[in-house]
Amino acid sequence: MTVYYYDLFSGTAGTPLTSHTANSGATWPNDANHIDEYNSIQLDGNGAVFLEGTQPTIEIPSAAQPSTQNFEVLFSFIRLSALSGSSSGVELLRQAPFTGSTEDYAFDYTEGSGFAFLHDGVAVGGYAAGPAVGTLWYLKVDVSTSGANTNFASYYSTNSGGPWTALTNYSVATPSDAVAAGLRFTGTSATTTTGLHIGALYVQDIPTLSSAGLTGPTQQLFSTPAKFTVDLNEVAGTGGVTVTLSSSNSSDTFQATEGGSNLSPKQITIAAGSASGTFWLTPSSSGTRNISITTSPTLSYIDSPFTYDALATATSYTVTGVSGGHQLVLETWTVTLVGGDFNGTITATPGNMLTGTASLTSGSAIVTGTGTAFLTQIVVGVSYTFGSTAYMVASVQSNTQLTLTTTATANTSGVTITSGQAAIYAPGICTFSGNGTLSQTFTFTPYSADTLIFTFTNSGSLPNVASMTFLATRMYYLDQFAGASGTSINGWDSNALPGVPASPYTVTGSIELDGNGMTFMSAGSSAQALTQATLPAFNPTTESFEIVFDIEQMTNVASVGGIYLMASTGETMTIVLSYTGTPVFYILQNGSENPNAYTYSNIPPIGTRWHIKIDFAPGNSQSAELYTYYSTDGINWNNLLTAVSPPIGIYPPSMPTAYAIGPYFSGAAGTATTGVHVGNIVAQDISPASPNCQISNAYVTSSGQSAMLFYETISGNIPVYPSA
Q1: Which of 223, 438, 479, 496 has the greatest number of CB atoms lying within 10 Å of its CB?
Q2: Which H or E element spans position 476?
Q3: Residue 692: what pLDDT?
Q4: Which CATH architecture has domain 476-685?
Q5: CB of 450 within 8 A of CB of 498?
Q6: Is the peptide bond before 305 cis (omega within 30 degrees of 0)?
Q7: 340 and 286 in contact (C-beta within 8 Å)?
């Protein structure tokens, strides 16, 4: 195939075309044999040319032109703006002499009309719409002779190499004009950034039609027809190309359109001027087969035979994923088809009803369950609705008993238990297209500590899997020390949590379990055990972290007991109850008492277990702020350290930079029934504040683009600004 010339129009913006040399070496002479009318074409600096001025111009290069009316012109085209009255394109044939000739054929885009072939400047064969402003098209113009006629055909593509779509065509008795392939501009003046621009101009022989390629999906649900495409390396000539189809499974059928009648014979025709054709395969059964094509005229074949797998229909599906994790962490579950493929959706809908029923007694915080699974479905510190009333859970004793943070306001029996389902309202949807992808995933983020129950449905007739439960926790670490008396904490692991494995301790000294959910120092004068559980990073400006533990002075001995709160290189922070002198609760930093963090008044009586809570709240980049509380019932909390009004500020240089949590003891050793005991340690996010209001009214505003909400107190009637 001969390329007569090509020009990518590289150069400085504003350079006249006549001062430019084509990439193939040809020049654009400024003389009567190569320019008609005016020298008005300039480079735009971006690989294209445009008309500068309003004078029309036709320019051809010095390169040898095709000797017959059988050639192809390729070029790029873009409308940088819509300039009324402008037109541009390519000259094709022209009668001598070049300058002043009134007999020619061209292909041209006219603003407001579109693409058309021109004869003596007049459109012939009809107009075809062009690209939108700013959209680059690649154009192909074929000029060919057949018998006594010359045929003009044009095509466009959004890719430089095709595939090509027919634009317009024209046929005429072969004229006596010579080939004069070049540029043609008329009308309104453009600039480097406006009007019609032409680039990447090639003039060459029409490539020979030589090959046909077969493309399509490699696998798909056998009940769904599969679309295949036959692509020619060049547009089909006169009479088109007949494509005969076959399958190694002789019972398969072919259609020319989706859902159309079966082809008989099994053939499609790619029309003259087109470079591709499509057909649909309807397999008669599942399994692999080879799809083949042959053509008339005979061509070489690419990817024929083509291996296609008609997939069987799935018989069921499975869902896999972790059964628990931390709140605010993105989770991913996987849905996998079994036995074949599926075309449709499988939906995971979060539910809100827990197992069994509950009974409550007015004035009591105890809830009794029937058929319930409190140990696995209830999260301490989370609100649940019992019947129609919401209560927060303080503790869980068994699968059928729990304790609320407040007492019930009425007697209720056999009521359902529902949860907020971790504030997840949107279902997870997996879409299967029957294309061989047999697994899909969906994600969800639990926005609160909660029990989340997914119910599964599908748009087809697959049997659905049973509901699956995900337990979201706000805990990072929990140890209830539920072991036999005398068990060493060396080798002991904390409780396993949803998505959080049990963790051992790093131990210094001798610490044992007392058999009642607590620990004590069994020997020596100092001991500590720090959990190896993964704790959140400490950031004083964003903290929302809480540590809860139980403490009890079993007998009056000179002992110190509490827990580690934080530790980093050279820095420690603990909170302890000391009976080495006057009983006192205080925070120790690097072994020294913090002068702003102590109490002599809030001391648990000997033999009485207290619950202690320390909340880390956002401070600033230079300090941490602590709130300390104690409770005798785990429901009602009071300020613990009273030396200063809360919060307690902890400042450098004695402020550690990381959490470190676990039992700490010093002073006299104890036994399972003597000394100070520490246990039931929890490290968790601070639970969100209970709502202070409810929505009383809501309206969509007159704009239709915003909403107006009115809030009132929980008890109703009193307007209030929401704060939680």
Answers
A1: 479
A2: strand 475-479
A3: 64
A4: Sandwich (2.60)
A5: no
A6: yes
A7: yes
The pLDDT value recorded for residue 687 is: 72
Question: Do 325 and 470 touch, CB atoms closer than 8 A?
Answer: yes
pLDDT at 423: 65
DSSP assignment of 709-722 equals: EEEEETTSSSB---
The two domains 211-311 and 316-351+424-473 share their CATH topology (first three levels equal): yes
What integer pLDDT is reported at residue 199 of this predicted model? Answer: 97
CA of residue 650 relative to chain centroid, distance:
41
Chain centre distance of CA 368: 43
Instruction: Please state, in angstroms and as integers, the Cα–Cα distance from residue 700 to each residue in 248, 411, 425, 694, 697, following that order.
Output: 63, 40, 22, 18, 11
DSSP secondary-structure letter at 497?
B
User: How far is CA 574 from its chain centroid?
Assistant: 43
What's the rounded Cα separation, in Å, for the pair 173 and 162?
A: 29
Q: What is the pLDDT of residue 654?
A: 67
Q: Among residues 276, 285, 280, which one has the least CA distance to residue 266?
A: 280
How far is the C-alpha of 570 from the C-alpha of 590, rounded, in Å? 8
**To 5 degrees, how large is the angle CA 569–CA 527–CA 483?**
120
Element holding 417 (H helix, E strand): strand 412-419
Looking at residue 710, its pLDDT comes to 76
Nearest to 687 by CA among 471, 376, 450: 450
What distance in Å separates the CA atoms of residue 523 and residue 668, rounded to the nearest whole number?
8
Q: What phi and psi values does residue 605 have, to the nearest 5 degrees?
A: -60, 150
Q: Are strands 3-7 and 196-204 parallel, antiparallel or unpaired?
A: antiparallel
Closest CA to 500 of 530, 484, 477: 477
Strands 401-404 and 324-326: unpaired
Topology of 3-204 in CATH?
Answer: Jelly Rolls (2.60.120)
Torsion angle of C-alpha atoms 243, 248, 251, 254, degrees rounded to 10 = -30
Cβ-Cβ contacts under 8 Å for 233 (sequence gap 6 or more):
207, 209, 210, 211, 212, 213, 275
DSSP H/E element including 448 = none
Buried b (16+ CB within 10 A) or exposed e, 167-197: bbbbeeebeebbbbbbbbbbbbbbbbebbbb
Per-residue model confidence (pLDDT) at position 719: 77
Q: For the chain, which residues score pLDDT lower than 70?
A: 352-353, 376, 420-421, 423, 425-426, 621-622, 652-654, 688-694, 714-717, 723-724
Cis peptide bond prior to 283, omega within 30° of 0: no
Q: Is 49 exposed, middle or buried (0-12, 13-18, 19+ CB in 10 A)?
A: buried
Pair of tokens at residue 235: 């547009």
What does the block give as tokens for 402?
A: 């729990």
How far apart (Å, rounded) are the C-alpha atoms in residues 49 and 42? 5
Domains of the chain, by residue range, sit at 3-204, 211-311, 316-351+424-473, 353-419, 476-685, 691-724
State the virtual CA torsion across 548, 552, 556, 559 in degrees, nearest 10: -40
* Cα dist from 203 to 1, 4, 181, whole Å: 11, 6, 7
Q: Are strands 122-128 and 114-119 parallel, antiparallel or unpaired?
A: antiparallel
Which secondary-structure segment (H or E) carries 376?
helix 374-377
- Asked whether the beta carbons of 65 and 178 are under 8 A apart, the reply is yes
Alpha-carbon distance 676 to 521, whole Å? 8
The answer to whether residues 675 and 554 touch, using CB atoms and an 8 Å cutoff, is yes
Q: Which CATH class is domain 211-311?
A: mainly beta
- The amino acid at residue 213 is G
* Cβ-contact 123, 116 below 8 angstroms: yes
Q: How many residues does the chain have?
A: 724
| Residue recorded with tokens 């039609």 | 209
Beta-carbon contacts of residue 470 (< 8 Å; ≥ 6 apart): 321, 322, 323, 324, 325, 331, 422, 444, 446, 451, 452, 453, 454, 498
- Dmax over CA atoms of the chain, in Å, equals 123
Class of domain 316-351+424-473: mainly beta
Between CA 220 and CA 217 the distance in angstroms is: 7
Please report, as a single letter, which amino acid is at residue 696.
S
